TrEMBL record:
Domain of life: Bacteria
Species the sequence originates in: Micromonospora citrea
Protein name stated in the entry: Recombinase zinc beta ribbon domain-containing protein
Amino acid sequence: MNATRPSLISGGSLCGRAAAWGRRHMAASTDPYLLRTLLWCGRCDVPMHPHPHCGERTYKCPLGCRKVPLSAEAIEAVTWTAAERRATLSGIAPPFRKSVLEQLLVKVILRANAPDDLRYIWRT
């Protein structure tokens, strides 16, 4: 029985500008939290933690400075859009997005209680 590996590029093969993301640096992830090690609290300067809340994926500051958990889906969507503006990422399959973001970003800092009030520290 052959196990199938997820394709790096959604709906096709690795070609064109997307080839710059080569497979040797990519790992598929099953982690539902795309920013698990990258999202930091701007108030406390500590990593925010995944915090399932009422059946929704959310992130929360472990020190309790933010009383309301923030939607993981919203924060991750805004961050992925920022990454797409920074690099050629069209067509990257979802299982590889965590790996791409880990290569592009050092840290994502949540400044306020809004998923679009983020500051990005990019790798150079």
